[in-house]
């Protein structure tokens, strides 16, 4: 019988388990707390723990996690796991037409000027037009509202990545 991803997480040494979690979100405290919670009885238990530990993340943790994310529409460089996650999550944007790509690039620039960090959205399962509409809408947010939304999106991404790693 082959071990499940959850079995591997539960049995991994702390450094290996921490590395897996950091590839889901570059937030060391979060990764450490989820690792300390092992062993988990079910996939849902570990995902619940990951959600709980991530809410809230500090501003510094949000900034660290955001710094690891590429702009929407740009291909993540490198061979590490978080870059692989980003490329897979943004696959739907990769085939966008030239006008959408241009509008995403312009929106990314405007967003970064307004908020000081990359625009982040859970891209998995969303098409380029939906992402562009969300970007346009979120440009109207005040900084506090946008910070809260970016943190929510980071949590969603982290948990989806962890679920993918363990499924």
Automatic annotation (TrEMBL):
Please tell me which top-level EC class this enzyme sits in.
lyase
Q: Name one GO molecular function term.
A: 2-oxo-4-hydroxy-4-carboxy-5-ureidoimidazoline decarboxylase activity
Q: Return the Gene3D superfamilies for the record.
A: Oxo-4-hydroxy-4-carboxy-5-ureidoimidazoline decarboxylase
A biological process term (GO) from this entry:
urate catabolic process
Entry protein name: 2-oxo-4-hydroxy-4-carboxy-5-ureidoimidazoline decarboxylase
* Pathway(s) per entry: Purine metabolism; urate degradation; (S)-allantoin from urate: step 3/3
Q: Where is the Oxo-4-hydroxy-4-carboxy-5-ureidoimidazoline decarboxylase domain?
A: 10-163
Q: What is its EC number?
A: 4.1.1.97
Q: Where is the composition biased (Basic and acidic residues)?
A: 71-90
Which keywords annotate this record?
Decarboxylase, Lyase, Purine metabolism
Q: Which domain of life is it from?
A: Bacteria
Q: Which SUPFAM superfamilies match?
A: UraD-Like
Spell out the reaction equation it catalyses.
5-hydroxy-2-oxo-4-ureido-2,5-dihydro-1H-imidazole-5-carboxylate + H(+) = (S)-allantoin + CO2
Matching InterPro entries, A to Z?
A: OHCU_decarboxylase, OHCU_decarboxylase-2, OHCU_decarboxylase_sf
Region spans: Disordered: 68-93
């Amino acid at each position: 019988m082959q071990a499940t991803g959850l079995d591997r997480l539960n049995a991994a040494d702390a450094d290996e388990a921490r590395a897996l979690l950091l590839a889901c979100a570059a937030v060391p405290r979060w990764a450490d707390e989820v690792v300390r919670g092992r062993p988990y009885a079910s996939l849902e238990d570990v995902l619940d723990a990951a959600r709980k530990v991530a809410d809230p993340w500090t501003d510094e943790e949000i900034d660290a996690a955001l710094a690891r994310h590429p702009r929407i529409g740009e291909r993540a460089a490198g061979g590490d796991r978080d870059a692989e996650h980003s490329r897979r999550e943004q696959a739907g944007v990769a085939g966008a037409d030239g006008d959408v790509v241009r509008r995403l690039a312009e929106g990314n620039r405007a967003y970064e000027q307004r908020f000081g960090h990359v625009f982040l959205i859970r891209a998995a399962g969303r098409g380029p037009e939906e992402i562009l509409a969300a970007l346009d809408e979120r440009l109207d947010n005040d900084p506090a509202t946008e910070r809260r939304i970016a943190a929510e999106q980071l949590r969603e991404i982290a948990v989806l990545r962890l679920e993918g790693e363990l499924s």
